[in-house]
Every structure is written in structure tokens, then in C-alpha cells.
Amino acid sequence: MKRIALLGCGSMGTQIALTIDSNDFPAVLTHVYDASKAASSSLVEKLNNKPEIVENSHLLSSQHIDIVVEAASQDAVKDVALSVLQNKKDLMIMSVGALLDESIYDILSDACKDFKKTIYLPSGAIAGLDGIKSVKSELESLSITTTKHPRSLKGAKFFENSDINLDKIDSITTIFDGTAKEAVSLFPANINVAALLSLTGIGSKQTKVRILADPNTDKNTHHIEASGKFGKMTFTIENFPDKNNPKTSRLAILSAIETLKKYCSDEIQIGT
Ligand SMILES: NC(=O)C1=CN([C@@H]2O[C@H](COP(=O)(O)OP(=O)(O)OC[C@H]3O[C@@H](n4cnc5c(N)ncnc54)[C@H](OP(=O)(O)O)[C@@H]3O)[C@@H](O)[C@H]2O)C=CC1
Ligand SMILES: O=C([O-])CC(=O)C(=O)O
């Protein structure tokens, strides 16, 4: 039975916790933390097996647990990831954009080796990473075009220095066209999937990102194109947004749960 600590009790964290609580796989949620005390208390109230709420994020990995599951923010990853590994615990990261900072990536990669622990990055809101991983050495171009409703893009850092008024958009509009490196820092809660693609493929400066706002869509759509000596791959994933957080797709939550299930279960493993 794996012992799990949860960092982030928002939309994704809540659904991960409810699944663990349903005894769907051999795991127990023992400790939780969220910057919002109200979010952690509200989550614990919903659970039959009540985890302890710790006083700060660093207290999660000092407990008797196997893995810390991060579903909070890129800042949370930057703050705690190294100490989780130093405390000899595994780590699952959903706010993957944090790893596009090369110094953070290198420090965490070395720490995994030094402390013999693993960082898990679920495929999140996209599909096709297995194929891209296999053709990595022959990949020449990689791009993702993400289309979301304007309300799903609200609050992104990008708009602090932009004249675009999301409330006034009445037809499909290109909001951003650039590299994955720029995209994850300007849209930290919207385009972690571009970080996953970058880390799997040809890096964050070569991976191209377009973000479109479409006032007539009810989906978060990710269209991925990869080409090179191997041929060409395209993937289009039309996700329904989570009902509590329109930035986050339902698939991202299911992917986190599936990765955790795989971590906790001794079963036949399918796929790359
Ligand atoms: N890899 C992928 O494919 C995907 C990744 N994501 C990412 O997963 C993460 C979770 O998503 P979701 O649950 O929908 O987001 P929510 O905003 O619903 O929940 C995040 C929770 O974490 C809290 N939080 C933020 N920063 C910290 C911190 N430093 N320490 C402790 N708690 C913190 C927030 O509190 P407060 O509200 O007070 O800030 C909030 O309660 C996000 O970073 C999101 O961008 C989402 C979709 C796809
Ligand atoms: O859930 C999605 O569709 C994508 C997302 O928010 C992210 O990658 O951060």
C-alpha cells in the first residue's frame, strides 16, 4: 500500500484525492497541503479517510510517505521539488512548465540519481508523447496549437503587457505565437503541455507554440504536429474543461490519476 502526500487541493488535487479515497488502487492519502487553508479543509471534509493537513509544503516530504503528488503551480515545484528528493521520496509533477528552467531541470535530474528517486511527469492534457519519444533522434520540427475559450486564458501573466481584452473577443483570435520556453512563463496555468512536448522532443526553444482564443468553443483543443526523417505525426486532442477550473482539461486529471495508479499497482504495463 503506497502512502501519498498531496500538494495542491484545487480542481485536480481534489479529484486525485477522491479517487484514492474510493480505494480504486492500493494507496492511502496521508497528508495534504494547499496555500489556501480553505481549499485543504474543504477537500478533507469530502474524504472518508481523513489525511492530516500540514502547516507548510516542506512538511509533506518529511512524513512517512512514498510520493508527493504536486497539483499546485510552477512556483510550488520550484519551492519544494529538490527537498522532496533529498527526503528520499518520489515526486509526481503536473506543473511541468517549472522544468523548462534549465538550472532547475539539471538540479532535479542530478538529485534523482543521487537519491535514487524518480520524478513522474504524466502526459497530462495531451496524447502522443510515446510516439514523439520514440522518434526523438529523427525529429526536425515540433509544434502545438492550443485553442481555449477566452475565459480559460484569464489571469495569465501575458495580459499584464498586452492590449488584448479577452472580454471583447468575438471570433477566433491568435493570442500568442512563439516558443514553448516563452509560452510556459507567460501562460503558466495553461500550457504545461508545451513543456511536456519540449522535454520529450527537441527542447523548449525549438518547440513552437500558438495559443488561440475562440469564444465559440466549449473545449480545450491541442493540435500537435511533429515531422522529421521518420515521417510525420499529427495529434488533435479535443478536451472538455474541468467543470471547476476551465483552464484545466478533464484528460489532465485522468492522466494524473492513471499515472498514480500505475505507480501504486503491480500490473501488466501497456505502452511505451
Ligand atoms: N501537465 C498538464 O498537462 C496540466 C497541468 N496543469 C497544472 O496542474 C496544476 C493544478 O491544476 P488545477 O488543480 O486545475 O489548479 P487549481 O488552480 O484548481 O488548484 C491549484 C491549487 O494549488 C494551490 N497552490 C498554488 N500554488 C501553491 C503553492 N506554491 N503551494 C501550495 N499551494 C499552492 C492553489 O491555491 P491558490 O488558488 O490560493 O493559488 C490552488 O488551491 C496547475 O499548475 C495547472 O497549471 C493543469 C492542466 C494540465
Ligand atoms: O489542461 C489543459 O488543456 C492544458 C493546460 O492547462 C496546461 O497544459 O497547463
TrEMBL record:
Domain Aspartate dehydrogenase stretches: 171-257
Residues at the active site: 222
Function: Specifically catalyzes the NAD or NADP-dependent dehydrogenation of L-aspartate to iminoaspartate.
Highest taxon of source: Archaea
Documented EC number(s): 1.4.1.21
Keywords for the protein's UniProt record, in alphabetical order: NAD, NADP, Oxidoreductase, Pyridine nucleotide biosynthesis
Domain Aspartate/homoserine dehydrogenase NAD-binding per the UniProt entry, residue ranges: 8-122
The species this protein was found in: Nitrosopumilus piranensis
Pathway: Cofactor biosynthesis; NAD(+) biosynthesis; iminoaspartate from L-aspartate (dehydrogenase route): step 1/1
Any one GO molecular function term: oxidoreductase activity, acting on the CH-NH2 group of donors, NAD or NADP as acceptor
High-level lineage: Archaea, Nitrososphaerota, Nitrososphaeria, Nitrosopumilales, Nitrosopumilaceae
SUPFAM superfamilies: Glyceraldehyde-3-phosphate dehydrogenase-like, C-terminal domain, NAD(P)-binding Rossmann-fold domains
InterPro entries, per the entry: Asp/hSer_DH_NAD-bd (IPR005106), Asp_DH (IPR002811), Asp_DH_arc (IPR022487), Asp_DH_prok (IPR020626), L-Asp_DH (IPR011182), NAD(P)-bd_dom_sf (IPR036291)
One of the GO BP terms on file: NAD+ biosynthetic process
Residues annotated for NAD(+) binding in this entry: 125, 192
Misc note: The iminoaspartate product is unstable in aqueous solution and can decompose to oxaloacetate and ammonia.
Enzyme class per UniProt: oxidoreductase
Name used for this protein in its record: L-aspartate dehydrogenase
Record-linked HAMAP family: NadX
Catalytic activity: L-aspartate + NADP(+) + H2O = oxaloacetate + NH4(+) + NADPH + H(+); L-aspartate + NAD(+) + H2O = oxaloacetate + NH4(+) + NADH + H(+)
